[in-house]
Specification:
By secondary structure, this protein is an alpha+beta fold. Helix content is about 35%, strand content about 30%. The protein has a single domain, classed as Nuclear Transport Factor 2, Chain: A, CATH 3.10.450.50.
Length: about 160
């Protein structure tokens, strides 16, 4: 699984490099249709606003409760039922920045289609206990009933630069 994630990270760096435009002129949503952009742009902004400002109650509404999320937040209980808003908020408060990295800053690079889903890439600073990292971050997004649902973000080992 680690090899798979590393390949994805390398591919993401290639995509970011290939899609790079002169400073300040790149549109991170350029590869999307107008309809996709209308759904994803406010969702992406909301997701990272919620992450950065620890708005866990709001994040609950757009967070896809995948088995990976439950594994991280519920200490390995991948098959748990979906969490209520209160359970989710409590789990986020207990986990973010302690067991899972907490985002401290984020700069969007690109949003790309991925089959029938999407992948958001950007550069982020994150902390966890005494650990600090600035690197490429990605998050997978599904559209369910016309609304974006976000998986947990992933920090990659790949460095990034704020161009």
């Amino acid at each position: 699984m680690k090899c798979h994630r590393h390949i994805i990270a390398i591919l993401a760096c290639f995509i970011l490099t290939a899609s790079a435009a002169p400073q300040g002129s790149a549109d991170p949503y350029a590869s999307l249709t107008p309809e996709q952009r209308a759904i994803l742009k406010p969702g992406v902004e909301r997701y990272f606003e919620d992450q950065l400002h620890e708005k866990w109650s709001d994040l609950w509404e757009i967070q896809d409760q995948t088995s990976r999320l439950k594994n991280e937040l519920l200490l390995g209980n991948r098959s748990a039922p979906d969490m209520s808003r209160e359970q989710f908020v409590r789990a986020m408060k207990e986990t973010m920045g302690i067991g899972y990295p907490q985002l401290r800053s984020f700069k969007l690079s690109v949003v790309n289609p991925d089959n029938e889903n999407f992948i958001v890439f950007g550069c982020a600073k994150a902390t966890r206990e005494s650990w600090r990292q600035t690197s490429l971050v990605m998050v997978h997004v599904k559209i369910i009933d016309g609304k974006p649902k976000f998986d947990l973000f992933e920090m990659t080992p790949d460095s990034c630069s704020n161009k």
